[in-house]
């Protein structure tokens, strides 16, 4: 399997002068996903946890509803210029064959869907509608999650170039953390792990992402039955609209002791003496 980091020479320029040395970079390689030998899509990802990634992606796109829907996942032959297997083509065999669509994914900001169409489509497709209640999470617990996520980003520590996603219990215990060059891939890897562990729908969990909260990340949380999404950066307007429509609690700018709660605030509990946590 390809490594998740690679070394490349670079010239570092600073006020004290110049120096040439190797730098550690995050690996970015294509992964072609096939169903029954037919190409479904290609995503650029950091190698590792590819099986989880594919499970999460296919769940998010409503191709599967459980891990049992996949009976086999195997890497196809693909070689680099030195004849080594690249492990960049993954063929999936489904228990019940489905037609492979030419393009039906909602996971791009350039897909041409208007806001209402996108919201309606996700609401119709999810197999795991969010419960009206769900977990209530203390603000202090939420505030501690980014630090725990960061502590588990081993590849980011070496490269500074990866996104991360983490699935947490309502009391703040980390269940799984995954890194990837693409934030959507990191989320797919976490959701795919949860699917394979029979934790979907994840009605008692919190999904945390290291960057912004886009429409597609809210979509993936909704499709997996996750009632709360936290992000260390900003959400988009359509992400907030979808979260409100689906009843998902969306928290942005989760940094230090502050956060912005955009939707379903009833799942967020300000602990005594910590009212300043709600910005």
From TrEMBL:
Compartments it resides in: Cytoplasm
Keyword Phosphoprotein found: no
Protein origin, superkingdom: Bacteria
SUPFAM superfamilies: Cytidine deaminase-like
Annotated region described as Disordered, given as residue ranges: 1-20
Catalytic residue positions: 111
Predominant location: cytoplasm
One Pfam family of this chain: FdhD-NarQ
InterPro entries: Cytidine_deaminase-like (IPR016193), FdhD (IPR003786)
Keyword Cytoplasm part of the UniProt annotation: yes
Keywords: Cytoplasm, Molybdenum cofactor biosynthesis
Biased composition (Basic residues): 1-12
HAMAP family: FdhD (MF_00187)
PANTHER family recorded: FORMATE DEHYDROGENASE, SULFUR CARRIER PROTEIN FDHD
Function: Required for formate dehydrogenase (FDH) activity. Acts as a sulfur carrier protein that transfers sulfur from IscS to the molybdenum cofactor prior to its insertion into FDH.
Family: Belongs to the FdhD family.
Protein name in UniProt: Sulfur carrier protein FdhD
Native source species: Nocardia beijingensis
Gene behind this protein: fdhD
